[in-house]
């Protein structure tokens, strides 16, 4: 489904399934991510169809209960270390599994973009970067630095990934939040590593 063609009706049907699973506020965020992701896909030469589908589904599982996530982690072969984490980490990595089973989306590029949308990764495809950045800069976001992130995203997607990663990590550290190791990997690759490569 939704891989060889993508009609207006298919997009509408997908939107409706997503909308049923979340608050209106979150759904408006999803639509903002979609608009942003499609625009970035057009700038950077990715598939706008995949950008639309990945954006519409990236937070699909975010309002599921912790118990449902834990059950899926145990039953569907996920690393059991995930049981020690929480919704912020689960809704992408494990959320992709809900998208695949319930929305019948089997496109591996889309599923991977969903998996990586919160933490990023050292190794990210163009679509992964687009969803990661669109989630951060969509028009509904309002936090110090978002305007700068939007400007960077229009000219250099990799730099936007680095900017977002650094600022998310700074935010998490200020909150004294536990940092998921993948988030550190993302930082090491996109921020620390890139800086060393500068003249
Ligand atoms: P949203 O789902 O659209 O709200 O955005 P995200 O999926 O990007 O982020 C969800 C939450 O996870 C945000 O509050 C992030 O700050 C938080 N987050 C991102 N990385 C980490 C991490 O490594 N550890 C923890 N504890 N939270 C994180
Ligand atoms: Fe999310
Ligand atoms: Fe999101």
UniProtKB/TrEMBL annotation:
Residues 26-140 form the HD domain. One of its GO terms (molecular function) is bis(5'-nucleosyl)-tetraphosphatase (symmetrical) activity. It catalyses: P(1),P(4)-bis(5'-adenosyl) tetraphosphate + H2O = 2 ADP + 2 H(+). Its EC number is 3.6.1.41. The keyword S-adenosyl-L-methionine does not apply. It holds the Pfam family HD. InterPro entries: Diverse_Catalytic_Enzymes, HD/PDEase_dom, HD_domain, YqeK. It is an enzyme of class 3 (hydrolase). Keywords: Hydrolase, Iron, Metal-binding, Nucleotide-binding. CDD domains: HDc (cd00077). This is bis(5'-nucleosyl)-tetraphosphatase (symmetrical).
């Amino acid at each position: 489904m939704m891989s060889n063609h993508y009609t207006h009706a298919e997009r509408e049907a997908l939107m409706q399934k997503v909308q049923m699973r979340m608050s209106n506020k979150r759904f408006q965020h999803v639509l903002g991510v979609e608009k942003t992701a499609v625009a970035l896909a057009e700038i950077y030469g990715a598939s706008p169809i995949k950008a639309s589908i990945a954006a519409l589904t990236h937070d699909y599982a975010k309002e599921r209960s912790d118990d449902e996530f834990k059950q899926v982690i145990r039953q569907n072969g996920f690393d059991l270390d995930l049981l020690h984490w929480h919704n912020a980490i689960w809704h992408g990595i494990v959320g992709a599994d809900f998208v695949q089973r319930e929305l019948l989306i089997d496109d591996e590029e889309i599923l991977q973009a969903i998996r990586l949308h919160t933490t990023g990764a050292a190794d990210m495809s163009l679509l992964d970067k687009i969803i990661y950045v669109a989630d951060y800069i969509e028009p509904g976001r309002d936090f110090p630095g978002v305007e700068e992130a939007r400007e960077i995203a229009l000219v250099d997607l990799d730099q936007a990934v680095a900017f977002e990663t650094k600022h998310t990590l700074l935010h998490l550290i200020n909150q004294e939040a536990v940092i998921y190791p993948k988030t550190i990997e993302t930082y090491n690759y996109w921020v620390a590593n890139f800086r060393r490569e500068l003249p």
